[in-house]
Structures are given as structure tokens and as C-alpha cells.
Amino acid sequence: MLQSIRYLFLICVVFNFSCQEEKAAESFFDFSGIEQFIEIAGILEQGQEPSENQWEKLFSTPGYEVLTESEFSREFFIEHLRMVFLPAEREALEQALEKEKNLPFHRRHAHHFNSAKNKMDEIVLQKEQLNEQAPELMEISRNEAMNYLPEMEETGFVPVSFVIFSNDARGYTPVVIDILFSIGLGDNLPLLVGHEVHHYFRNQILAYDPDTILAEDKDLLWVLNQIQAEGIADQIDKRKLVMDVEGPMHSFSDLWENMVKNAPDYLSFMDEHLSGMQNTAKDRLHTGQQLKKNLPMSGHPIGFYMANLILEEKGTKALAEEAGNPFAFFRKYQQVAKAQPGDAPVFSSGAMRVISDMEEKYIND
């Protein structure tokens, strides 16, 4: 009974605040996903099942809509919300928590949703504070992103939705930030938002049209694009969030630095597969699948290694001027790797020819 009253109170606080600050919320951050999340959590806590219409309201909010259109299923959110908030699912929750103990922090979804359950008051407070800080936060984040982008005449409004999904964020349209994750970042939150805003702007200046990519080239081009996109955006936040001893994610620094250190191994693996690839649809598909399957952490450490090499040799401008062209990124890396002695792998002529042919195929036609 007390828990039900608490959720009713939280719902009232959230919706009352939303009405009072409707104009500000529309101008900067979207919290509709949080509002619907709290409403459904309250229903489940009472041992009841939300109606189809109530679930639909959750998935129709901008943040959850883009997440379920891109990488998460609706069933994922329904399963985790029911498991965490429905009293009858307590045993299933305990089993899930035990199973996730050794997974990376961003994949411990049951733990994350369970933490959200225990921190609802903090989430509501964070919502209020974010709404107040939105103009300043977005100005800082936009400036951080623009440091690694070419000059853009009009960047326009950046839609940002706060939801609960994982210890993570996404540079979709809208940009999606997990509100619980944002609490742990404290004053460093603008760096994470800047990372995702960079993705948002970069998508607007992408040098190729994703809708024109042939099926056999999709995985290969995904790998090239991810490596550049994450490598440049990681220059905004990883040094401070992870590598700095005072950073909020420094506990993962050993893992991160080890992956970056091992980046040359993947680049050599990549060179071997690209140089040996036959120019047939079947072989292009297979090569792309192998490179994607073995790409660590969706390209973050590989891209960071390559981008850092370019940054040290050629400066920020070299990363920014063609930020929307992954083929140019690999060309610049190749120039730097050739010019300076060291452990940085140099791609073979065969591998670079594949990358050049892809660029001509999808950009210069």
C-alpha cells in the first residue's frame, strides 16, 4: 500500500512539473519516456498488468520509439519492467541478477532496471535539475561536438530524450540518454551528451546515403563507419570519463586501455580479410560479417586508436574536416601510419584498394 502511494506521488510530481515547465521541456529535453515508465512501474508494483494502451503510450514516446525501431524489442522492455516491478516475478529477477553478475556494466540490464526501481526519487530529482540546466548543458555539449565537425551553417535544434534502458546513450534522432546513467556522470554529463550530439550532427553530413548500400556491402560499410564515428566522438569524452583518475568511469580504465592497446591486432585482422577478399557479392558479404563479428565494442577502441594517431600527427582539424566520410578517415590513418615509425599497422595496397573502390561506388558516382 505504501509503495503504491509512493508511485502515485511520483506520478503526480512528474506530471505537475511537466505542466508547469511545459515550454522549457519542449524547448530542450523530452522526459515523456520517464513519465510513462513511472506510471507503468506503479501499476506493476500493485500486482496489476498495464493495458495494451498503456504499453503503447510508453513505446510512442520519442526515446523508446527510436530505441525499439533500431536495436531493442518491445518485448525486452516489457520483460524487464515486469520482472523488476511485478511482485510475482521476484524469483525470476533474482535469477537474472545472478546470471548478469559477470557481464559488462552496459549489458547488466536487470541490474539497471532494478537500480532504477530503488532510485525513483533520485530520478525525479534529476529530471527537475536537468530541465533547469538544459540551456547551459546543451550549449557546452554542442560546442564540444563542433570541435570535431566541419563548419556547419545551421545546426538547428537537437532533440534529446531521457529514458531508462541501459548504462549508456545513443546518438539517434532524438539523442537518447539514460537518466540513471546521467546521475552517475555528475558534472561530466555534457561530455557524454557532446559525444552523442556529435553522432547526431555527423549523421546529417554523412558522405553517403545509407539507403543506397547493397546488401553485400552493408556489414563492411557499417564497420568502416562505426570505427570513424566512435573514434572521433570518443575524443570528446573518453579521456575525462574513463582515463582520468577522477573520472566517473575510471574503474573501467584498465579494460578500455587494454582494448585500445590491442587495436593494432584488429587492424591487422582487418587488413588480412580486406586484402584477401574476392570481388563477389558472396565474399563481400562474408568479409563484412567477419569484420563486424570480431569488432570490439562496436568500434570504439579501434576508432579511438586510429583517431588519436591522426590527432597527434595532424591535429583536430584533420579529424573534423571530413568527419562524415569514413573512407577519408582510413586514408588519413594510412598516411600517418606510413609516415611515423612505430607499432601502428599500415594497410596493404589491396586493403586500401577495397576502401577506395567502396568510396567511388557510394560517393563519387
User: Order of strands in the sheet with the most strands?
Assistant: 1-2-4-3
Overall structural domain count: 2
Order of helices and strands: HHEHHHHHHHEEEHHHHHHHHHH
Q: What would you call the shape?
A: globular
Distance between the termini: 66 Å
Rg result: 22 Å
Structure characterization notes:
The protein has 365 residues and is mostly helical. It folds into 2 domains: 2-175, no CATH class; 210-362, no CATH class. Helix content is 68%, strand content 3%. The chain contains 19 helices and 4 strands. The chain has helices at residues 2-20, 22-27, 32-45, 52-59, 62-70, 74-85, 90-99, 109-118, 120-146, 179-185, 189-204, 218-243, 253-261, 263-275, 281-293, 300-314, 316-320, 326-339, 349-362; strands at residues 29-30, 160-163, 169-170, 175-178. A 4-stranded mixed β-sheet has the order 1-2-4-3. Helix 3 runs antiparallel to helix 4. The longest helix has 27 residues, at 120-146. Mean pLDDT is 91; it is low at 11-27.
Question: Can you give me a brief rundown of this structure?
Answer:
This protein has helices at 2-20, 22-27, 32-45, 52-59, 62-70, 74-85, 90-99, 109-118, 120-146, 179-185, 189-204, 218-243, 253-261, 263-275, 281-293, 300-314, 316-320, 326-339, 349-362; strands at 29-30, 160-163, 169-170, 175-178. The protein is mainly alpha-helical.
